[in-house]
Every structure is written in structure tokens, then in C-alpha cells.
Amino acid sequence: MGVDLKARITAIEALPPLRDVIAQHELSAQKALGQNFLLDMNITDKIVREALARDGDDWHDVHAFEIGPGPGGLTRSLLKSPAKKVHAIELDRRAVAALDGLVQAACGDLDVLQCDAMKEDLTMMADAPRVIVANLPYNIATPLLIGWLRQTRGDFNAYKSMTLMFQKEVADRMVATPDCKTYGRLSVITQWLCNVSVIYDLPPSAFTPPPKVMSAVVHFSPRELPADAPDFRAVERVTAAAFNQRRKMIRSSLKEYMPAIEALGINPQLRAENLSVQDYINISSV
Ligand code: SAH
């Protein structure tokens, strides 16, 4: 059993500053691992606060998963939240070693696993409710999200929410609406499965070292689907066919779906970006 929350917060606040932890463990950022650290605890605290607020301020029984804790700034903020337990998954051995002090301070409330997040099924690691909160390595951020969305399609309770940092350009695509240049496969699949909102943007200067691009924190809250919802692959197939030829009219890009398109009364002269999320789901359901 872990310590109570007040004691946990006190122990974490007594830890050395992140910059000292980085220096001591020679945790120089590696580009290949997508390492852009958040060392300002005001920022990491705010990410957790916003995530918690959007989840109805109720994390008392939540298992919080963090992918890529690095030196552990966001991990500290998560441990200061009411989450029951924090599970951090980190590929870099140096970072795992650097988290030792935090593991001690958390008295059993923090598990650190050294492994590749791309290969892990988080739902096997702890009971629901689960949330994911992470400043993701940008090179694998989208495939990680797609994997979690796929799980959400199979099990609405897989994740209570996800609060994730992406490159702003990727975040923009997730929340894009029809008739926009950025509206695409990622918009349809994300918005089909989740209520999604950008919490706020962060400039490169918020990170150490600063990345080349703007970033954004995005909150995803899974939507409960009707029993006759199409399967994930069907929606992937239709959106791929449409958006891989986004300049073409759907009567050509979605030729094999024409019976469904006609039955649904969708104008075949529209282009991929003119169809709503619901149009895609309807076409995929036939
Ligand atoms: N959350 C930290 C670090 C973010 S940088 C912070 O905000 O300061 C991204 C982190 O993801 C790095 O620590 C990197 O080592 C880790 N990482 C990269 N690829 C990974 C993978 N496949 N599985 C798990 N962690 C990974």
C-alpha cells in the first residue's frame, strides 16, 4: 500500500530539482529518442490539473500511465495528483536510473517499467479506470495514439481519458472539421472515438532542448459507441481510400462504396474533406 497523498506530496517536493537529477545521471537529451524534456513544474502541474479537471476531478481510483517519463517532471506532477498509482514506461535506461529517487519518494505508488511503449498493452498492466498522461516522443506519437484509439473501439472502458502532448500540426489535424485542409483520416478516426479538445499550446522554449515546432496538449475522452458501430478496420479502409485521393470526387475515390453512398443520399461529387465524421461512419457501417 502506498503512502497517503499529503505525505506523497511532501516527499516529492523534497526531491532535488530536475536539472540536478539530469546532471547527476548524465541524461543529455537524445534526438533519436524524441527527448525534449519539460523541466518547469508549473507547466507539468498545469497539464495534470487540466487533465484531472476534464475528467470531473475524480481520479481517486485511477491508474495513471505515463509514456516516456524522462527525468520525471510530469511524473512528479502525476504523483502529486490524487491518482491511486502511476505507471511510467520508459525505453531509456539512463532515465529509468534517474527516476530512482522518485520511486523511493513515492513509496510504492510509482512503477517504472523499462520497455518499448509501442510493444506494450497498458490495459494488461492495471485495472480500469486508467488514464494516459504523457509528453510523447514525437516520432512515435501518432502510432501510439492510433493503437490506444483502436483499443478504445474494442473496449470503451480501456481508458477513461488521454491527455497527450503532440506537435501542434498533428494536434490541429486531430481537431480539424470538414472543409479544412487539415481535415483527414486522423480527424475522422479521433473524433469518431473520442471527444477531443486542445487544452493549450506550448512554444518550443517550454522544452529542454527546444524542439523545432510548436506543441499542443490534447485531451481525449472516449465516446460510448452504439452496438452497431463499424469496426476499426472498416473506418480505416474507407478514410484511407477517400483521403489518399483527396482531390478526387468520392464517386471515384470511393467507387467500391457507391451503393452505400447512394443509399445514404450523400452527393457523389463531394470530395473527401467535405464529408462529416458521421458520413464516414455511415459509409463504413454498410
Ligand atoms: N515526459 C518527459 C520526457 C518527454 S521526452 C518530460 O516531459 O520531460 C520523450 C520520452 O519518451 C523520453 O524520455 C524518451 O526516452 C521516451 N521514449 C522514447 N521512445 C520511447 C518508447 N518507444 N517507449 C517508451 N519511452 C520512449
Describe it:
The chain is of the alpha/beta class. The model has no long low-confidence stretch (mean pLDDT 97). The radius of gyration is 21 Å and the shape is elongated. The protein has a seven-stranded mixed beta sheet, sandwiched between helices. The protein folds into two domains: 5-222, Rossmann fold; 232-285, rRNA adenine dimethylase, C-terminal domain (Helicase, Ruva Protein, domain 3), CATH 1.10.8.100. The chain contains 13 helices and seven strands. Helix 7 (141-154) links the parallel strand 4 (130-135) and strand 5.
Topology:
Layout: H1 5-13, H2 18-24, H3 41-54, E1 63-67, H4 73-79, E2 85-90, H5 93-98, H6 100-106, E3 110-114, E4 130-135, H7 141-154, E5 161-167, H8 168-175, H9 185-193, E6 194-202, E7 215-222, H10 232-243, H11 250-253, H12 258-263, H13 277-285
Parallel strand pairs: 1-2, 1-4, 2-3, 4-5
Antiparallel strand pairs: 5-7, 6-7
The structure holds S-adenosyl-L-homocysteine.
